[in-house]
Write a structure and sequence with these properties.
By secondary structure, the protein is α/β, with parallel strands linked by helices. The chain is built from 24 helices and 21 strands. A hairpin with a 2-residue loop joins strand 6 and strand 7.
Length: 667
């Protein structure tokens, strides 16, 4: 049976068809691949009295007082008291004035929403009005189609071609891994019979997608071309380490040997060096640059911000120039004259080690015998940027670095087109950052501690989740914290503010002033998460810490503890088990694993995976057992690529990745 067209599905007229096409859904298969982003369990109705902040639940309530409407800036706020036999609570909605007529005292509703602690009370925030029971799928909204209509359209598509979708996995593979049949999986993903049926459906669809993704990456790697071979014996590593004022860790020695081995090979290196903050990745990068230049090649290092590029340049001048390597800095803020001189120095080979920002990959930059390119903070760059960088030479070696701690098994999936080295050891003597949870009642005591730290010659970060006030979010914004510190709590100290909406030049100026010790307290948004290295900063205060993910809190904490002084991180929040993990460990991989289990993979997929993996696989990335199973299944199939099962999977992967495989072949 051939697949129906979207226009054959009941209820899909010209307007709905246009909306689906604009969302990138052009076939019935694509429609059914648009999986729910979450499920609401309406079968378990919870009493208000047992709910806590952070809970998401279905509640059956009656309106106990008329709705009040008021304006807060651009928001129209609708607020009503609701109650059941156990308790009473406020419920809040935004920009839905018609609800005033609906929220009549005495009426009963089934609501589903999240409970938040706001303005001294628990509130149900923007709860949905529900009907029915069981597991209700919730889809990411599509422009031009209401959620109810989208669900009806998907159910109509399931009914129209029920049981007729082609199986995409070999039966022997399904049996070995206990996977349900594809039609059963699609049906239960969109309208699950129960929790067990949903779990089986999601496991099957995620397994399939992760398997094809890994095989597709293997196919892309199979198109490797010959590239730059650099004469860099392992003795180069010992030469470099002897020039440093410290002894490298065993992890640094091991990873550098892996890098040099790749650089000697006939195919271009494509390696990710992953390590926690302070593990010494930059020293490995400079060692690779030293080896490349000694082998007769030029090299370049790209950082995501000008201040981080400048810091790398200063380090290169200190470590590489005494070894006879000429270094240069190229950023977008150079004057036209200095930019022209920089381009000439790069093209002529005068600069053997070039360090900079995105300016390094602009068309006007020409290199001289480029053999090694390095990108720092890989998660800030998309694959397109990395490709542009590597195309600046004749298939140079590519080394990418990331301090974002991604659990090891997940790295096999996200960076399947890269070899992976993990710097899993911190240098001896590094003092762990002391992390404490500070509730609001202890705020004044903390400010006294901050003043003492500044008097001892230290500097302080204060990070906020917002820039300005918002009625929709109960959190102190950076602008308010800045004014309070400057005028009320720490008026005798030099306090400054930096955030993402500032002009780049103003932001850089403020960050440079902090780096130079001209600012005591820097109030900021997460703009300082990457690219600021101030060894004199000894305290990190994170406002509304409950609003950040654990991995992000760990990254922010890594901004301090870079000098010899004892350093501290204060999490401004009410204590909870999630935040307590940060007080118990400084292991970024352990923290990231827990964060993923709690929140899902989120931004770990990043730009690099855009358009490749859907919500199905994304939702399962926190399932490390499934990640390992699909990784092993892919490797087993690829060991016998001519077997019937392997050919079926490879053919399917080739069809799914046809466009990207063509792009790789053309480069």
């Amino acid at each position: 049976m051939s697949e129906l067209r979207l226009s054959d599905i009941k209820g899909v007229g010209p307007a709905r068809l246009k909306a689906l096409h604009e969302a990138g859904i052009d076939t019935v298969s694509a429609l059914l691949a648009y999986l729910p982003r979450e499920y609401r369990d309406l079968s378990r109705v919870r009493p208000l009295g047992e709910l806590c902040a952070g809970d998401e639940a279905a509640v059956r309530v009656r309106v106990s007082g008329g709705a009040a409407v008021h304006r807060a800036g651009k928001l129209l706020v609708i607020k009503a008291r609701v109650s059941d036999d156990s308790d009473t609570m406020s419920a809040v909605w935004y920009n839905q004035p018609w609800l005033k007529e609906t929220l009549v005292p005495g009426r009963e509703f089934l609501l589903y929403g999240k409970v938040e602690a706001r303005f001294g009370e628990l509130q149900l925030v923007c709860p949905a009005f529900e009907t029915g029971e069981g597991l209700k799928p919730v889809y990411k909204p599509l422009a031009g189609i209401t959620p109810r209509v989208l669900q009806q359209t998907i159910l109509a598509a399931l009914d129209a071609q029920d049981g007729q979708y082609e199986e995409t996995l070999p039966e022997t593979l399904r049996r070995r891994y206990g996977l349900c049949e594809r039609n059963c999986a699609l049906r239960n993903a969109h309208c699950p019979l129960n929790h067990d049926a949903l779990a089986a459906a999601r496991r099957r669809l995620a397994f399939e997608e992760l398997l094809f993704f890994q095989v597709g990456l293997w196919l892309m790697r199979g198109t490797k071309r010959e590239g730059v071979m650099i004469d860099c014996p392992d003795a180069r590593a010992d030469e470099y380490w002897k020039t440093l004022p410290f002894t490298p860790t065993n992890a640094q020695r091991r990873v550098l040997c892996e890098v040099l081995s790749d650089m000697r090979a006939p195919f271009p290196m494509a390696r990710l060096v992953q390590g926690d903050v302070g593990s010494g990745k930059t020293a490995i990068a400079f060692a690779a640059m030293y080896a490349a230049v000694r082998g007769g090649w030029q090299c370049a290092l790209m950082a995501p911000t000008e201040i981080l590029a400048a810091q790398h340049y200063e380090s290169a001048q200190r470590l590489l120039e005494p070894l006879g390597i000429r270094c240069g800095l190229l950023t977008g803020s150079l004057t036209p004259k200095n930019k022209r001189l920089a381009h000439e120095a790069i093209a002529s080979g005068e600069w053997q080690a070039v360090i900079g920002t995105h300016a390094l990959i602009t068309e006007s930059v020409a290199y001289n015998h480029l053999g090694l390119v390095i990108t720092d903070e890989q998660h800030r760059f998309g694959v397109r940027q990395r490709t542009l960088f590597s195309e600046k030479g004749s298939s140079p070696n590519v080394l990418v670095m990331s301090a974002t701690p991604i659990p090891r098994t997940l790295s096999l999936i996200l960076y399947g087109d890269l070899d992976i080295s993990v710097v899993d050891e911190l240098p001896p003597g590094r003092t762990p950052v002391q992390t404490r949870i500070v509730p609001e009642k202890k705020r004044n005591d903390m400010y006294g501690f901050l003043r003492a730290q500044v008097q001892a010659g230290r500097q302080i970060y204060v990070v906020c989740p917002l820039i300005e006030e918002s009625e929709a979010v109960d959190a102190k914004p950076a602008e308010v914290i800045y004014e309070e510190l400057r005028t009320k709590y720490l008026p005798d100290l030099r306090v400054a503010l930096v955030h993402g909406r500032m002009k780049s030049a103003d932001k850089e100026e403020t960050l440079n002033a902090f780096h130079a010790g001209e600012i005591d307290v820097l109030v900021s948004t997460t703009v300082i998460e990457v690219g600021v290295n101030v060894p004199n900063a000894s305290v990190m205060v994170i406002e509304n810490a409950e609003r950040f993910g654990l991995a992000q809190l760990h990254q922010l904490r890594g901004r301090v503890g870079r000098g010899a002084a004892m350093s501290y991180c204060f999490l401004m929040a009410e204590p909870n088990e999630r935040l307590r993990l940060l007080t118990r460990t400084n292991d970024g991989f352990e923290i990231a694993q827990k964060d993923m289990e709690l929140r899902g993979p989120g931004e770990l997929l990043g730009q690099r995976q855009s358009g490749v993996m859907s919500l199905g696989a994304g939702a399962a990335l926190s399932d490390t057992a499934l990640l390992k199973e699909t990784h092993d299944a892919a490797r087993e199939l690829l060991r016998s690529p001519n077997s019937e099962d392997a050919r079926a999977v490879i053919t399917r992967a080739e069809a799914l990745f046809a466009e990207r495989l063509h792009d790789v072949a053309m480069n």
